[in-house]
């Protein structure tokens, strides 16, 4: 068996890349170790930059996203008492789109058969022979011109790059997230820094909300029954947003640790990394999925140029181009995470510095412009 590009991982990065290459007539095969039901059921964020939505539109797969997505023209930073609105549209001329990553994944999977994107589900024990361009798994093997590692932090792809340099910061807290079928408490996202810790008011639709609070890493789900969560979330989000808070039973509840991570380089020989296989950002700032889409834009353009004309310049430049943008997104996510969370060593002075920074942002058009520029996504 042979294919032009073997893709490891059927998350958003792998699926977007598969569709982009097939649209250009390039053969692909995607290997995914989980079942289709598992992949489609994963709850993830979904605040999309125009780079991401434009890519999905170019693939002809954006109809449901455009029909159901919610336009986010601005978002808010809060200090537990007041809201500081960042007017994205007025400052940058662009907006974000709220559309869950779960829904994007389902759209891409459902369109795969018609677009010739073949996916092998439950492909266990995937192994990469980078030098030979071969992928094998329990029950099969295939030769590839190129391999795209889109299999996340725990997949085998990033480990197949010899001498890779990891950069990592693990944060001493996690996010306790609750999904509930209740109307959003506010019509825009709110990132709140309260003296008890961080909170985020997010939304998925006019009738479904996704809320988070910062908790210790060793916290347990059973310690947070719904009543306790709603009380603490309402306190941290501030009085203006809490006035519109509607509570209800949670339909999903989970705790996610926060990590900043980059593995360099993103290419070795025939292997190219994209998405979480190469980098992870804290969810503060909504960069994870959007960084994956940027990787796909760079990598798909490079592969298409190679197959159309033999031009290898894009392939040679891929790692450096992608990493230049990755590090800027990592910086922004690190900045917002540092600004909005309570750390174990946060004392009265550190808390006062955070409040002073938020106050400075509230009165500075230059600071708001810098934040808006990074939030909507730096150009490719």
Describe it:
The structure is a single chain. This protein is an alpha+beta fold and 380 residues long. It folds into two domains: 2-72 and 94-168 and 259-338, FAD/NAD(P)-binding domain; 171-258 and 341-375, D-Amino Acid Oxidase, Chain A, domain 2 (2-Layer Sandwich). Helices cover 37% and strands 29% of the residues. The chain has helices spanning 12-23, 36-41, 50-58, 63-68, 88-92, 101-111, 226-237, 239-242, 288-309, 313-340, 348-363, 365-375; strands spanning 2-8, 28-31, 47-48, 70-72, 74-78, 83-87, 96-98, 118-120, 127-129, 134-137, 140-149, 165-180, 190-194, 197-205, 208-215, 250-264, 267-268, 271-273, 279-280. Strands 1, 2, 8, 9, 10, 11, 17 and 18 form an eight-stranded mixed β-sheet that branches. A hairpin with a 2-residue loop joins β17 and β18 (271-273). The longest helix is centred in the C-terminal third of the chain and has 28 residues, at 313-340. It is globular and about 60 Å long. 45% of the residues are buried.
In short:
The protein has 380 residues and is an alpha+beta fold. The chain is built from twelve helices and 19 strands. It folds into two domains: 226 residues, 3-Layer(bba) Sandwich (FAD/NAD(P)-binding domain); 123 residues, D-Amino Acid Oxidase, subunit A, domain 2 (D-Amino Acid Oxidase, Chain A, domain 2), CATH 3.30.9.
């Amino acid at each position: 068996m042979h294919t032009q590009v073997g893709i490891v991982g059927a998350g958003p990065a792998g699926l977007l890349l598969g569709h982009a290459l097939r649209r250009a007539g390039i053969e692909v095969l995607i290997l995914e170790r989980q079942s289709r039901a598992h992949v489609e059921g994963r709850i993830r964020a979904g605040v999309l930059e125009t780079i991401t939505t434009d890519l999905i539109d170019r693939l002809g797969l954006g109809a449901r996203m455009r029909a159901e997505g919610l336009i986010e023209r601005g978002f808010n930073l809060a200090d537990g008492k007041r809201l500081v609105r960042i007017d994205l549209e007025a400052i940058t001329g662009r907006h974000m789109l709220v559309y869950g990553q779960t829904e994007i994944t389902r759209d891409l999977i459902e369109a795969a058969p018609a677009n010739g994107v073949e996916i092998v589900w439950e492909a266990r024990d995937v192994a990469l022979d980078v030098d030979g361009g071969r992928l094998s798994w329990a029950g099969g093997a295939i030769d590839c011109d190129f391999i795209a590692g889109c299999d996340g932090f725990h997949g085998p792809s990033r480990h197949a790059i010899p001498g890779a340099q990891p950069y990592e910061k693990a944060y001493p807290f996690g996010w306790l997230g609750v999904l509930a079928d209740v109307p959003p408490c506010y019509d825009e996202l709110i990132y709140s820094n309260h003296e008890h810790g961080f909170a985020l008011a997010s939304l998925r639709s006019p009738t479904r909300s996704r809320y988070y609070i910062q908790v210790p890493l060793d916290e347990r789900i059973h310690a947070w029954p719904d009543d306790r969560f709603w009380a603490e979330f309402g306190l941290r989000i501030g009085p203006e947003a809490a006035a519109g808070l509607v509570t209800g039973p949670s339909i999903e509840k989970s705790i996610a640790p926060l990590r900043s991570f980059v593995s360099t380089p993103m290419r070795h020989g025939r292997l190219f990394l994209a998405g979480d296989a190469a980098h992870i950002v804290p969810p503060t700032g909504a960069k994870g999925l959007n960084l994956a889409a940027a990787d796909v834009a760079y990598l798909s353009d490079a592969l298409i140029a190679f197959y159309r004309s033999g031009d290898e310049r894009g392939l040679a430049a891929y790692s450096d181009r992608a990493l230049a943008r990755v590090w800027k997104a990592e910086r922004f996510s690190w900045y917002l995470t540092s600004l909005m969370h309570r750390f174990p060593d946060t004392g009265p002075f550190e808390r006062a510095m955070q409040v002073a920074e938020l106050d400075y942002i509230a009165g500075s058009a230059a600071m708001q412009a810098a934040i808006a520029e990074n939030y909507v996504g730096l150009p490719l």
